[in-house]
Amino acid sequence: FICVDNIRAGPTSDGSIGGMGLRATRQISGGDIITSSPVVPIHRRELFGDGTGSTVQGQPYQLLLNYAFGHEDSDLLLLPYGPLTGYINHPPPGKKANAMIRWHSLDEGVHVGLSRRQQYHHSELLELSADEVAHTHGKGLMIDYVALGDIADGDEIFIDYGDSWHNAWDSHVR
Q1: Rounded alpha-carbon distances, angstroms, from residue 5 to 9, 25, 70, 137, 145
Q2: What is the pLDDT of residue 61?
Q3: Low-confidence ranges of the chain (pLDDT < 50)
Q4: Is 88 in contact with 147 (CB distance < 8 Å)?
Q5: CA 47, CA 51: separation in Å to the nearest integer?
Q6: What kind and span of H or E run contains 11?
Q7: The pLDDT of residue 47
Q8: 38 with 118: CB under 8 angstroms?
Q9: What is the model's pLDDT at position 107?
């Protein structure tokens, strides 16, 4: 379990991209875990109407895709569902990411005293194919959102969604 009293949802810094963001409720030091989140592995084709995983314009797709992480060349998508993580935005123009995502580490002390069966993060899944991970039940993966530097009380927390997302967003706005 992890306490999330260090973050809250609130208005975005510039009022764009949905209007809501994630803010620190106190000072967070660089390198600290802001929050952790389990992720649901999903096969890309499950989110598209034609079952191919194609993002061709005009093809129906699930809005859920906007909240999942994945590489454009991979069939595996990871959907975080931890408290408040859906509020973490890409930085607006003129701002930089102040947080990053990394695989959860059992060495962080969060799971001290829990047996391997009781722990949610199963790093052995990282060695499997996308299809195997998407269809493995009873085991999961966790990600940590980590501060890249000091984040002040009230600051909005941003992660870099990547160039592909940024280009798609700019195209959507145009």
Answers
A1: 11, 7, 28, 31, 15
A2: 57
A3: 109-111, 113-114, 117-118
A4: no
A5: 7
A6: strand 7-11
A7: 72
A8: no
A9: 59
Bridge partner list, 79: 40
141: Cβ contacts below 8 Å, ≥ 6 apart: 38, 39, 41, 78, 103, 104, 120, 121, 122, 123, 125, 126, 133
Bridge-based pairing of strands 76-80 and 69-70 is antiparallel
For the full predicted model, state whether its pTM sits above 0.85: no
Q: What is the pLDDT of residue 133?
A: 78
Classify residue 106 as left (phi > 0), alpha (psi -120 to 50) or beta. alpha
Cβ atoms 40, 105 nearer than 8 A: no
Q: Are 111 and 1 in contact (CB under 8 A)?
A: no
**For the CA atoms of 161, 164, 169, 174, what is the dihedral angle to 10 degrees?**
160
Task: Give the pLDDT score at 145.
Answer: 94
| C-alpha dist (Å) from residue 57 to 48, 107, 163, 171, 173 | 12, 44, 19, 12, 15
